[in-house]
């Protein structure tokens, strides 16, 4: 029997890519899923129609709106914070306002969403954040700011795991490597370079990441917390 039947699950950033695969996975296992989106109105509507999940328009860089969205959706049994952006470029040239925006989305949004969800989350709940293997390994130039945002999640997870552990709430980070989505298409211009540092010369799929999310949210994973779970084809090996 599925662990997720009638569980309330909220995915922050679920309209496309890894987030959409997570929405589909939990919805297919009988969960009541809500997901947020910012720009992809059509994709969000199509996904909601297909899965029965509820699409909520909420830009996660607006931290007040994000907290209100999490409050309104609660109490949630499982929170997944997936929304994120990547910026490549010479740090001497990157637009500072864009870097700030990435910090808001990749660091501040997961923290404030997790804290807000935990206020009403039942004992035994699950908090999952999609980080990146770039938290552990940055083998190319131009990724310092992105790597910084994903590394920050590690300290957050370790700390929140201890803060909420007495309620049996687990807090984990999933760290994908190259995964075939709009952000990082398997046929994109960076593929050869990325595969050159991987043990497996292939992109992962969003469904594979969703499978790991489902495991970490399951009853079987109740003893796993404050930990990073890398699924990267050996990018970090
Ligand atoms: P995509 O760009 O394909 O999808 C991003 C998702 O996040 C979309 O649903 C998008 O919704 C949502 N999102 C983006 N900005 C916001 C916002 N301001 N508010 C709400 N939702 C938002 O990315 P991926 O699926 O590839 O990436 C998902 C996560 O995985 C990210 O955190 C990324 O850093 C991480 N990751 C991805 C890797 C990869 O190779 N693909 C590798 C390592 C980590 P909308 O379009 O509606 O705004």
From TrEMBL:
GO terms for biological process: phosphorelay signal transduction system. Pfam families: adh_short_C2. Residues 190-237 form the HPt domain. Keywords: Phosphoprotein. It comes from the Bacteria. The keyword rRNA processing does not apply. The modification Phosphohistidine is found at residue 229. The keyword Phosphoprotein applies. CDD domains: SDR_c. InterPro entries: KR_dom, NAD(P)-bd_dom_sf, Sc_DH/Rdtase_CS, SDR_fam, Sig_transdc_His_kin_Hpt_dom. Belongs to the short-chain dehydrogenases/reductases (SDR) family. This is Cyclic-di-GMP-binding biofilm dispersal mediator protein. It comes from Pseudochrobactrum asaccharolyticum. The lineage of its organism: Bacteria, Pseudomonadati, Pseudomonadota, Alphaproteobacteria, Hyphomicrobiales.
């Amino acid at each position: 029997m599925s662990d997720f039947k009638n569980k309330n699950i909220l995915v922050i950033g679920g309209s496309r890519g890894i987030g959409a695969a997570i929405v589909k996975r939990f919805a297919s296992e009988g969960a009541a899923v809500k997901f947020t989106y910012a720009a992809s109105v059509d994709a969000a509507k199509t996904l909601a129609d297909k899965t029965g999940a509820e699409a909520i328009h909420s830009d996660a860089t607006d931290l007040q709106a994000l907290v209100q969205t999490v409050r309104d959706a609660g109490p949630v049994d499982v929170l997944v914070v997936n929304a994120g952006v990547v910026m490549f470029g010479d740090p001497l040239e990157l637009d500072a306002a864009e870097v700030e925006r990435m910090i808001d989305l990749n660091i501040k949004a997961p923290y404030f969403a997790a804290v807000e969800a935990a206020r009403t989350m039942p004992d035994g709940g699950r908090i999952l954040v999609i980080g990146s293997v770039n938290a552990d390994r940055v083998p190319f130039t131009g990724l310092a700011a992105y790597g910084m945002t994903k590394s920050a999640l590690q300290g957050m997870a370790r700390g929140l795991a201890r803060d909420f552990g007495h309620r049996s709430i687990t807090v984990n980070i999933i760290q994908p490597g190259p995964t075939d989505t709009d952000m990082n298409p398997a046929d994109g211009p960076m593929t050869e370079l990325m595969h050159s540092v991987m043990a497996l010369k292939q992109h992962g799929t969003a469904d594979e990441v969703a499978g790991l999310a489902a495991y970490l949210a399951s009853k079987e994973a109740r003893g796993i917390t404050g930990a990073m779970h890398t699924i990267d084809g050996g990018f970090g090996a």
